[in-house]
Every structure is written in C-alpha cells, then in structure tokens.
Amino acid sequence: MLRILLLLLFSLCLFAQEHAFESEIRAFEQADKTIPPPRNPIVFTGSSSIRLWENLGNYFPNKPVLQRGFGGSQLSDVIHYADRVIVPYKPKQVVLYAGENDVAAGKTGQEVYERLVTLFEHVRRKLPNTTFTFISIKPSPSRRKYFSEMDNANRLIQAYLAKQRNTQFVDIRPVMLLKNGQPVPELFRSDSLHMLPAGYERWQKVLKPYLK
C-alpha cells in the first residue's frame, strides 16, 4: 500500500512538473479566441521580464507586437510550449528574453546556450523565414553571484547567433550598468530583480531599431 502511495505521489509530481505554466498558456489560447492576435506579429516571449512589461504595445507603436511571456519560466519551458506560444502565430519576428532563471536554478552558461540552440533549431524548422531575436541576459542586482555564468551564456549565444541567418543578439547590458560595471539600481523594483518602467524605457530604446 505504501509503495502504491509513493508511486502515486511521484506520478503527481511528474505531472506538475510537466505542466508548469499550463494555466498561463491556456489563458493565452482563450484570449486569442476572444481577441484575435495580429497577423504575422512580433511575438515577445520568455520569462517574467516579458510578462511584466506593462503596455508593451505603447512602447512600439505601429508594430504588431504580441506579448506571450509567462511566469518565472526557463528556456526549457519555452521549448516545451513553443508550439503553442510561438509557432501558431506565424510571426515575422520572435523576440526572446530567457536564460536568467535557468542560471539562477543552477544551470551553467554552457547549458543555457545548449537550451537556446535547441529552441532556435525548433523554431527555425517550423518558421524558416522568421527573424529570431535574443535579448541578452540582464544584470539583475539580486543575482550578482551568477554574473559570470550569465556572461558566459551571453557570449556563447551571441557567437552562435552570429553564424545563423536572420538572427539578432540585442545586448541590453551597456544601458543597465554604471561606469563601475554595477547595475543601475534605479532600474529595478525593490526585489532587485524585476524592472521598473525606467528599465523598460532603456530596453525600448535599444530594441526599437531591431524590430521589423
């Protein structure tokens, strides 16, 4: 009996892990039925830095942006849900911010890079003409101890994308750092992780020339 209970608990844990963020993805799908998304949009996806970008469309007027960031997701989650949050929209461009949570969860820069390659190759197979844009992992003050691994991930990803067709690596770190190399504290909320509007304003200025 105990063995059966343990197996049941294990199965439930696996189910929960396999379906993380499922409710958010379903909410996107329901929203699409209520308000049809723009045709061939610019899909912004990834973790909470995208999800919490309030009034995203106002930052990029006259651009068909579609916000599809979810929770504290990792690249593995974006891979898992790519066929639901990216591919169905047939976007002309995908703008991705992800990888920061992966490093904070213990992944190395190399592992983050490998996950990015997996996602990119999947998207490129399904959407061969879509521009793929990666926003560099940002220097959050609360995650200083991970900066080395994050820099390594950024370096590997930038080098990889430079060899691929129709890709962009957008480095937002320079506008988020002081002259001494430390993050600008005024760009972040009290948790020193998520950004205030001032941070997104800097992102907007850097990203704008890259949007199709």
Protein architecture, described:
The protein is an alpha/beta fold and 212 residues long. It has one domain: SGNH hydrolase (Rossmann fold, 3-Layer(aba) Sandwich). Helix 5 packs parallel to helix 7 and helix 7 packs parallel to helix 8.
Overall mean pLDDT stands at 93
Q: What is the third-level CATH name, the topology?
A: Rossmann fold
CATH architecture: 3-Layer(aba) Sandwich
Gross geometry? globular
- Specify the structural class: alpha/beta
Taken as a percent bin, the fraction of beta residues is 5-15%
Entry keywords:
212 residues, alpha/beta, Rossmann fold, five-stranded parallel sheet, 46% helix, 11% strand
Give the gist of this structure.
The chain is 46% helix and 11% strand. The protein has 212 residues and is α/β, with parallel strands linked by helices.
List strands and helices in order, with pairings.
Elements: H1 2-18, H2 22-34, E1 42-46, H3 48-51, H4 56-59, E2 65-69, H5 75-85, E3 93-97, H6 100-104, H7 109-126, E4 131-135, H8 147-161, E5 167-170, H9 197-207
Parallel strand pairs: 1-2, 1-3, 3-4, 4-5
